[in-house]
Specification:
Elements lengths: L1 H15 L42 H13 L1 H21 L5 E12 L6 H6 L4 E15 L4 H67 L5 H35 L32 H4 L1 H22 L4 E12 L11 E10 L7 H67 L5 H35 L9 H18 L1
Antiparallel strand pairs: 1-2, 2-3, 3-4
Helix pairs in contact: 2-5, 3-5, 3-11, 5-6, 5-8, 5-10, 8-9, 9-10
Length: about 500
């Protein structure tokens, strides 16, 4: 009765355990007052900033992002790492269960003739066979929580792998949107340079005519020719730059070279960037930025790995049993008298390991401290990056307004010059010069518009926007494949 009660106590202890080591306690993060409670901190998938690229209202860009999240190789690699982490967790779950093996042995024994008399009494012949088969079972009792802490560390590593997947997706989406806008802006600048080059050729023609009529000196003609050559060189460089942007976009989308060359023929201009941002984004930073959550999960994992190192100093208790048959004749192998059974409890206590356990504990302790400081640094960098991006976005918006007003005024002057030209009050040459200044102003405005778009992208990247937009294929690849297997093994 007492032995049965002892067995029940042991089984109960193995299932519940007594987990040693401190659990993870969330680090208190103190945000600046201006960053708290700006807006609701609920995660609403309908918020426009989650798919911030759609605010550019460009169907081509939206299609590229959809294609990216569904079949990008970098995202697939990150998703495969999630699968690896989940496989590690599933493998660790089996440490809670007993291990059962079967062993079978067939021996041919040839004993020496100098054996003691007792062996002569047991065996009529010095040469005989041995047939042995048994089931061995071992159940390691997790009395001090070594396995449980390891499981918690594995779960944190899974979350860290998922957050790494989100980090990769945020970065890749931002890179694709950036490359697309830079390509469209480069195409626009190339067209503007072509128009300016054509105007410069007309101006050179006028300067040559004036020189032939003795109205203009040759030096002015030479200056205009040099300017034309400079603009031609700039146009060639811009064409090469456009091709570089095209190749980069194709590379990010894992496409063959020149697959997207049709974009060079389209007449559409670069989409206008948003000039406003959604309310409440900074207050949601710590909840939504995946790289910060990644650092926190790494801190959680290091905490439980340190607990495992502490448990290594404690003894291990195991229940074991051996049920089998032993015979020297195959025909009597299954006789009841040849059955044997062994069961009991074993104890393995560390006595001397040459400082290995202490060294491992120190290593895990320092890794935990490293993860702690890395988490705090990630939070500070997040706050700094968002604040910097907010300031840059607002500054760039003011600069764009300035250049837009300049373009508007020069456009009005150009319309006036064309009206005066019709009334013979303004020359063709002067009208071309005004038009050239308008094209230069449009070029500057487009450049500022691109910079504002890039600041908008950077701001959303710093806020971690876009990680929620996982494709169903990636979700199934990273999570769903193991769910059924986990249910079967639980």
């Amino acid at each position: 009765m007492k032995s049965k009660l002892f067995l029940v106590v042991i089984l109960f202890s193995s299932s519940t355990g007594c987990r040693l080591g401190s659990g993870y306690e969330p680090v208190a993060i103190h945000l600046p007052p201006d960053w708290q409670n700006i807006c609701s901190t609920t995660l609403d998938p309908s918020e426009p900033w989650i798919k911030y690229w759609e605010q550019f209202q460009d169907a081509e860009l939206n299609g590229f992002v959809d294609e990216l999240v569904s079949c990008n190789l970098d995202i697939e690699i990150a998703a495969a790492k999630v699968r690896q982490a989940r496989a590690e967790e599933i493998k660790g779950q089996f440490d809670f269960w007993p291990q059962i093996d079967f062993v079978g042995i067939i021996n041919r024994n040839n004993l020496s003739s100098a054996i003691p008399i007792i062996f002569d009494e047991l065996f009529s012949n010095t040469s005989f066979n041995t047939f042995y088969g048994a089931f061995n079972a071992v159940w390691n009792l997790d009395l001090f929580g070594r396995t449980q802490n390891g499981m918690l560390a594995d779960k944190a590593n899974i979350q860290a792998a998922r957050e790494n997947l989100h980090v990769v997706q945020v970065s890749m989406i931002a890179e694709v949107v950036r490359a697309y806008l830079e390509l469209k802006n480069s195409i626009d600048e190339e067209r503007l340079l072509q128009k300016s080059y054509d105007i410069e050729k007309k101006l050179l023609f006028f300067e040559g005519s004036f020189f032939e009529n003795g109205v203009q000196d040759q030096q002015q003609v030479l200056k205009r020719g040099i300017e034309l050559d400079r603009m031609g060189s700039n146009l060639i460089n811009k064409k090469n730059e456009t091709l570089k942007h095209l190749f980069r976009l194709e590379f990010l989308l894992d496409k063959q070279p020149n697959t997207l060359s049709y974009l060079l023929e389209k007449e559409t201009c670069m989409p206008k960037p948003p000039t406003t941002i959604s309310c409440g984004l900074p207050s949601d930073l710590l909840l939504k930025r995946p790289d910060i959550r990644l650092k926190e999960q790494q801190l959680i994992a290091s905490t439980y790995e340190k607990n495992v190192a502490i448990c290594n100093f404690l003894p291990e208790f195991s229940l074991f049993s051996n049920l089998g048959q032993l015979s020297n004749l195959i025909r009597t192998f299954f006789n009841q008298k040849n059955a044997n059974a062994v069961y009991g409890m074993s104890l393995l206590a560390p006595i001397f390991h040459g400082g290995e356990l202490i060294g491992n504990l120190r290593l895990k302790t320092y890794k935990q401290k490293e993860a702690y400081f890395a988490y705090l640094k990630a939070v500070l960098e997040g706050l700094f990056d968002v604040q910097k991006s907010l300031n840059a976005f607002e500054t760039r918006k003011l600069s764009l307004d300035f250049f837009a007003n300049m373009t508007k005024k020069r456009g009005e002057i150009f319309e006036l010059s064309r009206a005066l030209k019709k009334n013979a009050l303004f020359s063709e040459k002067d009208t071309l010069l005004v038009e050239q200044s308008v094209l230069e102003s449009i070029k500057n405005e487009n450049q500022q518009s691109l910079q504002l778009a890039l600041e908008f992208i950077q701001l959303n990247k710093e806020l971690g926007a876009g990680w929620q937009y996982l494709s169903p294929e990636i979700q199934q690849l990273s999570e769903g494949e193991f769910e059924l297997f986990k249910e079967l093994t639980n």
